[in-house]
Each structure stands twice: as structure tokens, then as C-alpha cells.
């Protein structure tokens, strides 16, 4: 099975509240696209629950060797909050998602094992509320072609659900597009057919 079929992402924000020995855990999950959007979400939820005892979080962006991870215990004992939240994301096979769990201390200590279980359960409770869709790795391509082939190129981009990020019209016309990585080879082949082989295709970092 390819990694594209093994990963998912959420389509809507989700939240859940759990209670463990008097401590209240409020978890929020949201889809993110990059590190900036992840950090903004963490800051927003942390501000919303600024009176909480702790605001712990984790997020994951991308898949494979290029994946970006970050987690924080936010003052809880090391390894008892951020990592269990990240593990919840992994258990659900999710990516491009951030989870923040606010904890209000209820007076009873949970111990390191109890804390880890509580944070993971809180994160899972929120993630279980979120609708999911398959996640497909996206790549950017720069394509160059004669202006007379513009309509044919647009038809193929629509067929493969490619998104035009930048466009420069002229001779040649140049587009920067984003497309599912698994479709890139097929799109390139059809672009060459449609333009009689006169097309430049370059993968961008």
C-alpha cells in the first residue's frame, strides 16, 4: 500500500472534553497547511484557555522523510503530554493536523503514566469527532508552453485537479502549478501529447 493511501487529514475543526480524577482536559484539533498555520492555531487556543494550568500541543505536517513534527509538554513532566498527543495523531494515521489540549488541574496528581494516558485520550476524543479524507502528497511544477496551447493545458489541469499558483503569459507562457504527486507523471505525459512535445516541465522544491 502506498503512503498516499495510508494517511488522512481532517476536514473540519473538532473538540472534546474529558475528565480524569477531577482534572478537565479540553482538546481542539484543526487542519493545517504549514508550520505558520500550526503555530497560529496553537497560539489561538492557548490564548482562549490562558487560565488553564497547561496548554500542551502537537502537530504534524506532511509524510515520510519530509514530515515536520513538533510537540510541547508546556510545563508538564517531560514526555507526558506533547508526545502522547502526537501519538494520538499517529494512531489515527493523520497528517496536516494540530491538536492543543488545555488542562485544568483538579487537585489529584495523575502520575506520569496517568498524565500520558489522559492527554492521549483527550486528543483521540477530539480527533474521533473530526471527518477525515485521504491525504495526498502535493508537489509544485513549473510548466512552459506556447500560448496557443493554453486551452488544452487548462483542460488537463482541470482533469487532474491541478491548481495554478502563478501565471505569466507570453511566449512561452509559464505556470507554477500544484498537483498530487501520484498524478504528476500522467499529467506530464498528457501535456507532452497535447503540446506535440513542446513543453517544459520542472519539479520545484
Describe it for me?
With 205 residues, the protein is α+β, with helices and mostly antiparallel strands. Helices cover 32% and strands 35% of the residues. The chain contains six helices and eleven strands. The strands form three sheets. A five-stranded antiparallel β-sheet has the order 2-3-6-4-5, with helices on both faces. It has a four-stranded antiparallel β-sheet with strand order 9-10-8-11, with helices on one face. A two-stranded antiparallel sheet has the order 1-7. A hairpin with a 4-residue loop joins strand 9 and strand 10. 36% of the residues are buried.
Give the key terms.
205 residues, alpha+beta, 5-stranded antiparallel sheet, 4-stranded antiparallel sheet, 6 helices, 11 strands
Write down the Rg.
22 Å
Outline the biggest β-sheet. 5 strands, antiparallel
Individual helix count: 6
**Which stretches of 5+ consecutive residues score pLDDT under 50?**
none
What structural class should be given to the helix and strand makeup?
alpha+beta
Strand content: 25-35%
Mean pLDDT: 93
Which of globular, elongated, flat, extended, rod-shaped describes the shape? elongated
One letter per element, helices H and strands E, the order comes to HEEEHEEHEHEEHEEHE
**Termini separation:** 25 Å
Query: Helical proportion?
Result: 25-40%
Present the secondary structure layout.
Elements: H1 3-6, E1 8-10, E2 14-20, E3 23-31, H2 35-48, E4 54-61, E5 68-72, H3 82-91, E6 97-104, H4 111-127, E7 132-134, E8 138-145, H5 150-159, E9 163-168, E10 173-180, H6 184-194, E11 199-204
Antiparallel strand pairs: 1-7, 2-3, 3-6, 4-5, 4-6, 8-10, 8-11, 9-10
